[in-house]
Backbone:
């Protein structure tokens, strides 16, 4: 999903370059006066000069500036950070971003609980975020979890029908798969769960509803987008064109 639909809309060159992190408006004004900025091969000394950032060839100090309005990031969220843009006490996922990504002022699409890890999408594309978070879209989200207790066929059947949460809400049907179990003094189950809605702490509350407790939760996919397992915890990278295309095919709020 690109911003190419904005092609033809002219903007001040200092606004374009500051958006791309080239420098502050005053920095760019100085660079222009020094003759370091060219547009389509012509030196531009007026930092208020208007350009079409999608069509004009803009160079600063001989380096081509490739303009884009939006950024799309995949983060492997670690435990202990909040899926928020700011917090007075705790670190947020924005604190983990590199400066070149932070300058776009992205925000998390949906939320993962502080102790939940895995796939988190960040972007400054409000339209795409709305599509992904719209309850009407029923975007599937898949989680892997460690659960205290013996998750069995009865739970699989219950989740497939929808379970009643403590507040009386009955969830939409969800796909529960038992990956493995460890039996000892306490049985621990490893599961995969796909839900298509995003009630607050939904995954945890669904297991509470059947008498079990989630002790570890990781989101591994959102829609067709899958977590890059080679991405270290706390790291993020930009989506590939193919991954972005997977997201734009359809898009509900994340939940645990």
Residues:
């Amino acid at each position: 999903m690109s911003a190419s639909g904005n092609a033809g809309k002219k903007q001040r060159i200092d606004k374009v370059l500051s958006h791309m992190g080239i420098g502050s408006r005053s920095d760019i004004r100085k660079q222009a006066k020094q003759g370091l900025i060219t547009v389509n091969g012509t030196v531009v000394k007026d930092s208020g000069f208007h350009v079409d950032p999608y069509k004009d060839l803009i160079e600063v100090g001989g380096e081509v500036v490739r303009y884009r309005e939006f950024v799309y990031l995949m983060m492997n969220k670690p435990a202990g950070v909040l899926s928020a843009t700011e917090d007075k006490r705790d670190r947020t996922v924005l604190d983990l971003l590199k400066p070149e990504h932070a300058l776009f002022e992205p925000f998390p699409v949906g939320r993962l609980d502080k102790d939940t890890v895995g796939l988190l999408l960040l972007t400054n594309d409000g339209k795409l975020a709305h599509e992904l978070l719209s309850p009407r879209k029923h975007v599937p989200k898949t989680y892997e979890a460690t659960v205290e207790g013996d998750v069995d066929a009865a739970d699989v059947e219950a989740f497939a029908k929808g379970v009643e949460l403590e507040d009386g809400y009955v969830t939409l049907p969800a796909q529960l798969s038992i990956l493995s179990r460890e039996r000892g003094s306490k049985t621990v189950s490893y599961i995969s769960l796909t839900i298509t809605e995003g009630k607050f702490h939904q995954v945890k509350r669904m297991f509470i509803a059947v008498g079990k407790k989630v002790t570890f939760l990781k989101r591994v996919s959102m829609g067709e987008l899958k977590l890059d397992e080679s991405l270290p915890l706390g790291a993020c990278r930009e989506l590939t064109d193919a991954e972005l295309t997977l997201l734009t095919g359809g898009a509900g709020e994340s939940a645990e």
Q: What stands out?
A: Residues 25-33 form the longest helix (9 residues). The first strand starts at residue 11 and ends at 12. The chain has seven helices and 15 strands.
